[in-house]
Amino acid sequence: QGVKEITLLGQIVDRYGKDEPEFPTLAGLMRRLHDIEGLERIRFLTSHPNYMTDELLDAVAELPKVMPHIEVPNQAGDDEVLARMRRGYTAEQYQRLVERIRARIPGVSIATDIIVGFPGETEEQFQHTYDLLETLKLDVAHLARYSPRAGTVSARRMLDDVPADEKKRRFRLLEDQQERIVSEIHARYLGQRVPVLFEELVKGRWKGRTHTNKLVFVESTRDLRGALLPVSITWTGPWSMQGKLAENGHA
Description:
The structure is a single chain. By secondary structure, the protein is of the alpha/beta class. It is about 30% helix and about 25% strand. The protein has 7 helices and 10 strands. A 5-stranded mixed β-barrel has the order 6-7-8-10-9. A hairpin with a 4-residue loop joins strand 9 (about 230-235) and strand 10 (about 240-245). The longest helix is centred in the last third of the chain and has 24 residues, at about 165-185.
């Protein structure tokens, strides 16, 4: 069908194959997909920190079609909150994982999920999350304010005791922090030439993504849908970048 990019999607996608002995692991699946002619890019999400194996990281590092972008949610930076969430790891273990990912995949971008205002979260515990994100300086932090969801342990057994205004305040603090961090990360792309796979026309500009899943907008009268082209980055902001098609180049 001419598809250039696919995303392997699962709630804990790095557990793929563990419940079916005849299935390959996620790394094995990506190695098979890598051989498909015409396919340019492979992505996967969302992973759980406890199942991010060396085999999987090796596949990302070794396979050119597998993009160097890892979505691995943390949810909180305080061990007591993580225990109440039943996440199965500590903040330090998550930090070691990020270090391991970066060491194995140079230039990787990493995205996380964070929930503020989980039942019982104190100001000090929130500060631990803030401090961890300040240390890790991740490329993306998907932020959410806790709200009870029917059927979950937290909804059945925990009091939603963080006031809504306080959840909003904590959310804004992380939002401002991440805007600053990502602005610094994106600024490093200024003047660089990067391959961009274009997806669609948005308000007169073509939208595409880099290997590391950064949004790039380019003005062009050509139909760029599905094209993988080199782009010279001319402007960077916290949420996207702008560029010009590089002349006589190849992605």
